[in-house]
Amino acid sequence: MNAAPSRLSHRTITQIGRYEAVDLHGIDKDLALTLYSQMLRLRRTEEALHREYHPAEEMRCPIHFCIGQEAVPAALSALVRPDDFMFSHHRSHGYYFAKGAPMRELFAEIYGRETGANGGKAGSQDISHSGSHFYSGAILAGAVSIAVGAAFGFQHAKTRQISISGFGEGATDEGAFWEAMNYSGKKRLPILFVIENNRYATFSDQLKRQAEDNIVERVTPFGVRATQIFGNDVALAWRTLHTEISRLREGDGPVLVEAYTYRWNSHVGPEDDSANAYRSGDEIAFWKTNCPIALFENKLRLQHWLNDDEKDAIEQEIAGEIAANFQFAKDSAFPTDTDWHRMTYEDASPLADALLGTAAGGNFDHYQADAKLGPY
Ligand SMILES: Cc1ncc(C[n+]2csc(CCOP(=O)(O)OP(=O)(O)O)c2C)c(N)n1
Ligand SMILES: [Mg+2]
Fold first, then answer.
1. Which domains does the chain carry?
2. Which whole-number Å values give the CA distances from 249 to 52, 99, 132, in the listed order?
3. In this structure, which residues have their CB less than 5 angstroms from ion ligand 2?
4. What does the pLDDT read at residue 300?
5. CA 178 – ligand 1 centroid, Å
6. How confident is the model at residue 1 (pLDDT cuts 50, 70, 90)?
7. Atom 7 of ligand 1, nearest CA residue
8. What is the DSSP string of 252-309?
9. Entry pTM
């Protein structure tokens, strides 16, 4: 049985060959089919966006696709609660779905329409859906700091909510990431850091940026419990995250889970960027052989929990949802509201309004009329 070694590294991971260790321990049929459907929905969504991206040229933003990285978002989707907060990086679609945010507002956002999650003005890598407590951001490690702030708020208010911060290994190149480790470890915050380690930041190998690929060892002294997993095994991802999230909700945080995985496509856009020769054919073949959906589907079929007819039914439901949401996005109007002040300034944050208003040199008195500025 080809299992993953306990200490993972992208340098050696291809030696596993075909991963044969998917294990349904702790997972019943309903949950298994939920995890499978979530992965398939994300994959089919990304493939459909791929197909439309260039021929039509109607999408208004760059997209960082996450094909190949479906397992972690699917596992999270079955574990987070509506009142938890989730923060993503630029490769946002998996996390957006994991938090239960609606596909139609994602599509409309990508198409730049006013019905999008952010009125068509954020696009894919900065999309948020506040009703779902989901936020993303293109500044590498920027959202990690914000997630720490949210966790601090939950701890302070003594709620049982948790904060989830998902990002790539590239975010650990940033100082903000290490500040987040320091503060969350010191304060024992209710926060889950999820690293999808896909080896590369754009075209740059982790080992060209860092002395060792041992993030879990480096965060532990900060007081952050940390574990590595083979991130294409959705059952393992679910079991690990289930254990860690349960501990978080009992006040035993913070925790970091590093999932080794791989993006199949270009860093950004639907193209194939392998012409840049930054990764080997063998490596790509290893990760495609160990497609998270194929690995799990194989196991479900062996278990007699999935057959062709059942798979077709799932596929049809997803295809119908995707088609309806393309239609919704394309039928929606472009934004007409050009009142940028109203979009940026909120009475709920009078200090920020005042500072930004002053910095911008504009007259924002009408937005500050009701703001009760305290002694800042
Ligand atoms: C502060 C900052 N520096 C640089 C960039 C440019 N940038 C965008 S994505 C990226 C690589 C991210 O790699 P990783 O965090 O591993 O995520 P992945 O793209 O592999 O999912 C970089 C350097 C940025 N967005 N923000
Ligand atoms: Mg990466």
1. 13-338 (3.40.50.970), 339-376 (no CATH)
2. 41, 17, 19
3. 168-170, 198
4. 98
5. 16
6. low
7. 140
8. ---EEEEEE----S-SSSSS--GGG--S-HHHHHHHHHT-HHHHHHHHHHHTTS--HH
9. 0.92
